[in-house]
Design brief:
- The protein has about 140 residues and is an alpha+beta fold.
- The chain is built from 3 helices and 5 strands, in the order E-E-H-E-E-E-H-H.
- A 5-stranded antiparallel beta sheet has the order 2-1-3-4-5, with helices on one face.
Length: about 140
């Protein structure tokens, strides 16, 4: 792939390419500029969720690239392979189906993303969020 400028984009763009023969065949390439709205549309089984999982770092296709704001999140091409872990990508993904950790209680599921916070600060934030959504008393 050429430079970002020669490809008609900007270094701030989200750039995604993904190719693989299976188990879910993929041959996708797109670019999304900051503030731009992009929709992935297709029939069930066409790879939409797999592409989103690739961006989030939850899946690695056989070949491809994901970069955002000039930072390489994933690269698998020409013998190179690099992947930032999901927590280093500063992106969130809401699953269509329930995706809670079954071995954790409500409070621990909510606090999961606050692992860098002090225990007291994380507990206070979880308690505030439970009150905000009307689930106080259901932490356990």
């Amino acid at each position: 792939m050429g430079s970002l400028a020669s490809a008609g984009g900007h270094v701030d763009d989200l750039i995604v390419t993904a190719q693989q023969a299976g188990p879910i065949p993929l041959n996708a390439s797109f670019r999304c500029a900051p503030g731009e709205l992009l929709a992935l549309v297709g029939p069930s089984g066409s790879g939409k969720t797999t592409l989103l999982r690739t961006i989030a770092g939850l899946y690695q296709p056989q070949q491809g690239r994901v970069s955002c704001a000039g930072r390489e999140w994933f690269l698998a091409q020409s013998g190179q392979r690099h992947s930032l872990p999901p927590q280093a990508r500063q992106i969130g993904m809401v699953f269509q189906d329930v995706a809670l950790f079954p071995h954790l209680n409500v409070a621990a599921n909510i606090a999961f993303g606050l692992y860098r916070w002090s225990r007291a600060k994380a507990k206070a934030r979880v308690d505030a969020l439970l009150v905000m959504i009307g689930l106080e008393g259901f932490a356990e």
